Amino acid sequence: MRAHTLIAAALATMVSAHGSHGSGAHGGTYGEEARSDYPNWMTRHMAEEHGMGTFDAQSFFTLHDFDSDGVWEREEMQRMYGLMDPSNRDVSHDRREAAYRELLALLDTSGDNLVSRDEFAAFVADGRTLPDLGFGPGHHGDDEYEYEVHHWNKYHNEDTKLEDLTHPEDIEHFKKHEELEDAEERQQAMDKIAIIEANIPAKFLRVQH
User: Fold this and answer.
1) What is the tens place of the pLDDT at every residue in 140-167?
2) How far apart are the first and last CA of the chain?
3) In contact, 48 and 116? CB cutoff 8 Å
4) What CATH number is associated with residue 126?
5) How many C-alpha atoms does 67 have within 13 Å on its Cβ side?
6) Residue 49 CA from chain centroid, whole number
7) Residue 60 within any structural domain of the chain
8) What is the pLDDT of residues 17-72, one digit of tens each?
9) According to the UniProt entry, where is the signal peptide (predicted)?
10) Residue 5 φ then ψ, to 5°
11) How far apart are CA 80 and CA 59, in angstroms?
12) Rounded to whole angstroms, how far apart are CA atoms 172 and 10?
């Protein structure tokens, strides 16, 4: 993505221009301007999170079988609903567990606390769909993926100029890049510092016998 090559130069530009867009069309959190006319949560999730307008039970299941072991486990179901994403960091443990139990009640016909590919296929074949549990569209990619899908692809393209990268989402995203780079540089500097035994307080030295 071209956005990655604009990081260094864009930081100064974005900081100086911050505020020019306010809380208008580009403000708020990712996906704020998402459509509300999807027929169900699964369709919304696949369209907004995966860019897929059509899908079947097998493709949906495979996309969310994150460890490719043929079943959905607790963490995978919670992740599918965006409960591992920072946007849902304030959701309590009890609410996360309640979501998991609600999904099991719908899908787990064998009672093993897992959802198999066949169980999900039978659920969809019966004309049913996964419910909207109130956690949003189900963000479950890393920071780069979420930024690209929910902001860059909507408002920018390969012709984007530095002066266009002034949306709050741009500033937040590239600020994280800068913080990570600063932390990495500090760690590299620390790694280069030689340990001089004479400068270590005696109480921290192991007594040699």
Assistant:
1) 755 554 556 445 456 666 676 766 666 6
2) 59
3) no
4) 1.10.238.10
5) 9
6) 10
7) yes
8) 333 333 333 333 334 445 678 999 999 999 888 888 899 999 999 999 999 999 99
9) 1-19
10) -80, -10
11) 14
12) 12
